């Protein structure tokens, strides 16, 4: 249910060209989902770019090899695979419409620096999307969090 609402909102807000940065994207799982959503949209993937950035070049290589197998209908030129550190991104200011980091912020030594970098590379009005697991101290909210955590796709 949460996933379907997320997808509907994302589709309605999609501009004609989307430049996405997936930090700690390694093997491409999130980038592939972004590409699938772009491909399904009326605007398609034309003109858009999904940059996968990870500190581990071996994971990027696996992701690049997987791209053609996982998404044979998507032009491989949609993806850019870049080795880099979340705390010191080698991208121009205001470069991306969307910045994602999924289960990666926990591996960043200086989270504040990574978030500053995310803000720096995002275009004005850009979207920062971070997903991590967490411990919720409030028992009422924890019940909701635990229930939702198991149904998100």
From TrEMBL:
Gene3D superfamilies: Vaccinia Virus protein VP39. Keywords: Methyltransferase, S-adenosyl-L-methionine, Transferase. SUPFAM superfamilies: S-adenosyl-L-methionine-dependent methyltransferases. The keyword rRNA processing does not apply. It comes from the Eukaryota. GO terms for biological process: methylation. One of its GO terms (molecular function) is 2-methoxy-6-polyprenyl-1,4-benzoquinol methyltransferase activity. Pfam families: Ubie_methyltran (PF01209). This is Unnamed protein product. It comes from Phytophthora lilii.
């Amino acid at each position: 249910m949460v996933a379907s609402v997320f997808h509907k909102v994302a589709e309605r807000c999609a501009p004609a060209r989307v430049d996405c940065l997936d930090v700690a994207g390694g093997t491409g799982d999130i980038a592939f989902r972004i590409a699938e959503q772009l491909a399904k949209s009326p605007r398609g993937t034309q003109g858009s770019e999904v940059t996968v950035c990870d500190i581990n070049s071996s994971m990027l290589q696996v992701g690049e090899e997987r791209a053609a197998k996982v998404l044979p209908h998507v032009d491989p030129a949609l993806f850019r695979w870049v080795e880099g550190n979340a705390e010191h991104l080698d991208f121009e200011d205001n470069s991306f419409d969307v910045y994602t980091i999924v289960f990666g912020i926990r591996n960043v030594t200086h989270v504040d620096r990574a978030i500053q970098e995310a803000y720096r590379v995002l275009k004005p009005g850009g979207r920062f999307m971070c997903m991590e697991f967490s411990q919720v101290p409030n028992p009422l909210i924890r019940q909701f969090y635990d229930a939702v955590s198991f149904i998100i796709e």
